[in-house]
Amino acid sequence: MITLDLTGRTALVTGSSQGIGLAIATRLAQAGARVAVNGRSADRVADAAAEVRRAAEGAEVLEVVADLSDAAGAADVVAQLPSVDVLVNNLGIFGAQDPFEIDDATWDRYWQVNVMSAVRMLRAYLPGMRERGWGRAVTIASDSAVAIPAEMIHYGVSKTALLGVTRGFAKAVSGSGVTVNTVIAGPTHTPGVEGFVAEMVGEDGPWEERQRTFMREHRPASLLQRLIEPHEIADTVTYLASDLASATTGAAVRADGGYVDAILP
Q1: Which of 116, 214, 239, 262 is the most exposed place for a label (fewest CB within 10 A)?
Q2: Is pTM beyond 0.90 here?
Q3: Is 155 among the residues known to form the active site?
Q4: CATH fold for the domain made of 10-188+230-255
Q5: CB-CB contact of 183 with 141 (8 Å)
């Protein structure tokens, strides 16, 4: 039997008050980690932390309220949590927009939230992991990093950048016992994606029918032919955060439902 045991490890999951981030925080806590839940709203972070505690009885859950879209917010996180063993860069925003109407301010916002938030956290926490000789950093990317969607180029490009960020930082801590990886998540069932599906195929009809229509018309390359559930992404992240993944670093690990039509990432 394979056991993912993170007892004694402290984990930070950015953007974890809902969706994939909340699922990751829950799985890490269930594996024994002391988990820090992060978000901008104190109320939403408190609610998410309570949910993690309910799902992982006896877990120690910290509440780290901060906006990681700028350097001040990143510094605030580090002040509240100076050291972590497991860093999961999950924070991200997305949305459909005509590429010719995406202005510079929007491009910059996506870059700051999706890319620089991860860079700041890696820069802050990897040196300590390297000094201690153990650490795990996992950044959540997307199938959109490889198959850029026409309706949200700005999002796809930001996720492409994260693949390079991960590979570079993995080299920066090579030989230290620290691993740095990316998870390429496929189309996943979250509240935000439910809204996106409504934008793309409308709000009429049962959810299951609209989901199938969305996948058929807008994500036809998926081999699952359904949205991935958040816990399925969380399982992959928890494995990468464990001792069992010690030989995996600098990698783009696919949990995309076969969406990316390639033998290698």
Answers
A1: 262
A2: yes
A3: yes
A4: Rossmann fold (3.40.50)
A5: yes
How many residues appear in the chain?
265
pLDDT in tens, the chain (265 residues): 678 999 999 999 999 999 999 999 999 999 999 999 999 999 999 999 999 999 999 999 999 999 999 999 999 999 999 999 999 999 999 988 999 999 999 999 999 999 999 999 999 999 999 999 999 999 999 999 999 999 899 999 999 999 999 999 999 999 999 999 999 999 899 888 888 899 889 999 999 899 989 999 988 889 998 899 999 999 999 999 999 999 999 999 999 999 888 887 6
> 64 has which bridge partners?
38
Domain locations in the chain as residue ranges = 10-188+230-255, 189-227
Which strand ranges, in their side-by-side order, compose the sheet holding 86-89?
Answer: 61-65, 34-39, 10-13, 86-89, 135-142, 178-185, 252-255
* Angle, vertex CA 258, rays to CA 210 and CA 119, nearest 5: 95
- Helix and strand numbers, DSSP H then E, in the chain: 9, 7
Instruction: Catalogue the E-assigned strands of the chain.
Output: 10-13, 34-39, 61-65, 86-89, 135-142, 178-185, 252-255
Taking Cα atoms as reference points, which of 40, 83, 88 lies closest to residue 65?
A: 40
Q: Give the residue from 179, 183, 188 showing the smallest Cα distance to 163.
A: 183
Gap between the Cα atoms of 157 and 111, Å rounded: 9
For residues 37 and 25, is the Cβ–Cβ distance under 8 A?
Answer: yes
